[in-house]
Write a structure and sequence with these properties.
Number of helices: 18
Helix content: 25-40%
Low-confidence stretches: 1-5, 398-417
Largest sheet: 9 strands, mixed
CATH topology of the largest domain: TIM Barrel
CATH superfamily of the largest domain: Aldolase class I
Radius of gyration: 30 Å
Strand content: 15-25%
């Protein structure tokens, strides 16, 4: 667990009676999730005047917080970034009637229940309505219930994929697929792997963040049977990058599974350059590639967590040039109604002239550069003509029509009229290598 000096948090504060065996058992963690306001007030200081409002929120949207994830919360901070992600607050009640039930139009693009087919070559497959933790900003808050998806419904999803040859990539999501039993997930993956045109399977999960105990040897041994398999995880804040989360990610990596992170930009959680930089650095130390930062969807009840696009661009500006390129995710907005992911980037290309083949560029320091895309067209043509004239040695010996037999040069030339062959172009690096420059070495 990360250091908790100066904070009332951690297992010892919230769950002092839990044994090591219980704490490290993901099933115990799942069974002991906090799901009601009455349970919550025993653990967190919630103003009495807000309790009725928060109960009202739970009439629309579920709550479920595993002990492990709740133990990351600072009990003395009502604006704690972990709390804001998992605990219903008064602002959620105030905005409960604002936003869309299905902001991405997933149901509009659903040829069979559980499948969203928005892009030509890939589909989303929702195999679970259950999550370890229910995020307050989730774009699928409308399906926050825990009835199991029937096997018949899953078979219909697989059948759709099997009879749609254009589909080469499936994203398995939910809910959270890793809340399914290992045996059930194995069965689903086996059915998908029997589809000959299916190339890639990806699993979207927040379990390594909220319930890392679920990632065990049995699960990883099963997953590695179904390669090529990718896992997209969902870390939003540096405090989620705990030793337990790092262990879970390491087990998945050692099973040969590439890990990518999909964060959501959230007000009061990660809407600062410092926090986002800390997050991407923490991810890279766990061998997780920062992949996407999503602008928060306009889902019902989450308006208090949404930032401006200007804030997202400011954060991306603050990452570029100040950390390695590997640590810079793509900032995207999921277009309303099913328009798909739209990349949003700061303006580094200020001007582009395709006729002159020049660009005006701005770097991360604000410095401006003119960039020549290619040499000018007339120079390309001149070089082409030179190349078509044949062997350069003939030019130097006067064998060309403009040499010693009556051309422009009296002593033989290569066409430049001065009677001399051009000097050879040989690069000589001045960079030191093991104490000697290339010139010294030659």
């Amino acid at each position: 667990m990360i250091a908790t000096v100066g904070r009332r948090s951690g297992r010892a504060h919230y769950y002092p009676e839990a044994t090591d065996a219980e704490w490290n058992d993901w099933r115990w963690q799942f069974r002991h999730r906090v799901t009601t306001i009455d349970e919550l007030v025993k653990l967190l200081p919630i103003p009495e005047g807000e309790r009725a409002l928060r109960r009202e929120v739970l009439r629309d949207f579920r709550m479920g917080i595993p002990p492990y994830y709740l133990a990351l919360i600072d009990a003395d901070d009502p604006d704690d970034p972990i709390l804001r992600q998992a605990v219903p607050i008064a602002e959620e009640y105030a905005w409960r009637d604002v936003g869309d039930e299905d902001p991405l139009g997933e149901e509009k693009y659903s040829p069979v229940p559980g499948i969203t087919h928005r892009y030509p070559d890939r589909v989303l497959m929702v195999i679970s309505n259950s999550c370890a933790v229910y995020c307050r900003y989730c774009t699928r808050k409308r399906i926050m219930y825990e009835d199991a998806v029937p096997d018949l419904e899953i078979d219909r999803m697989v059948d759709y994929i099997a009879r749609t040859p254009a589909v080469r990539d499936v994203v398995i999501s939910g809910g959270d697929p890793l809340t399914c039993s290992t045996a059930k997930l194995d069965s689903i993956l086996t059915k998908l792997r029997a589809v000959p045109h299916l190339e890639i399977v990806r699993i979207g999960t927040r379990v390594p963040v909220s319930l890392p105990q679920r990632i065990d040897a049995e699960l990883c041994e099963m997953l590695q049977k179904h390669h090529p398999l990718w896992v997209n995880v969902h870390f939003n804040h540096p405090r989620e990058c705990t030793p337990e989360a790092a262990r879970a990610c390491d087990l998945l990596s050692r099973a040969g599974i590439p890990l990518n992170n999909q964060a959501v930009l959230l007000k009061g959680v990660n809407d600062s350059v410092e926090t986002m930089r800390g997050l991407v650095h923490g991810l890279m130390k766990m061998r997780v590639r920062p992949y996407y930062v999503y602008h928060c969807d306009p889902v019902r009840g989450s308006e208090h967590m949404r930032t401006t696009i200007a804030k997202g661009l400011e954060i991306m500006e603050g990452l570029r040039g100040h950390t390695s390129g590997l640590g810079i995710p793509q900032y995207v907005i999921d277009a309303p109604g099913g328009g798909g992911k739209v990349p949003v980037n700061p303006d580094y290309l200020l001007h582009y002239d395709p006729k002159k083949q020049t660009a005006i560029l701005r770097n991360y320091q604000g410095r401006i550069f003119e960039y020549q895309e290619q040499v000018p067209e007339e120079e390309l043509l001149r070089r082409k003509l030179v190349a078509e004239r044949g062997d350069p040695s003939r030019h130097a010996n006067g064998d060309h029509g403009n040499g010693s037999n009556g051309g422009n040069g009296s002593n033989g030339s290569n066409g430049n009229g001065n009677g001399h062959a051009p000097a050879p172009v040989i690069g000589k690096s001045q960079w030191a290598h093991r104490g000697r420059s290339r010139r010294d070495a030659s």
